[in-house]
């Protein structure tokens, strides 16, 4: 049996960014419906459950190479994503276009797969990194992924 307390803490901490996005979308909606709750549960919980598996399998496939370069890969990934966001913000400010690339959460198109999938993937990048490190915690990957996904789904629904 997996250590419950570390897994619970890990699951809650990984869900926080998805909860923040759900909370913001819920505020904009004012009255979430069942389809919105189901959407955040499936997208955010699903992405958080799948990404540790992807990270685990990638680490297993690349083995020692990932172990030697994991810190630099994380730095590169975060620097690239952060730099891209900063450049996009500057570009929008310079062009004086403060519009969001996504439609407002109250519009039906903001709940489409093309709107929800990028949000789900963006909030689950940390779960990918956790998948690489999970074997060191001696927690079975399937149990961990399921727990992370369920906790994120429940917390995202509460956030909405």
Name a few traits of the molecule:
160 residues; mainly alpha; 6 helices
Structural class: mainly alpha
Separate helix tally: 6
Low-confidence stretches: none
Tell me the Rg in angstroms.
17 Å
Q: Overall mean pLDDT score?
A: 82
Total count of strands: 0
Order of helices and strands: HHHHHH
Q: What is the subunit organization of this protein?
A: single chain
Percent range of helical residues? over 70%
How far the N terminus sits from the C terminus, by CA atoms, comes to 32 Å
The share of residues in extended strands comes to: under 5%
Write structural notes for this entry.
By secondary structure, this protein is mostly helical. The protein has helices spanning 4-29, 34-62, 64-95, 113-123, 125-133, 141-159. Helix 1 (4-29) crosses helix 2, helix 1 runs parallel beside helix 6 (141-159) and helix 2 (34-62) packs antiparallel against helix 6. It starts with a helix and ends with a helix.
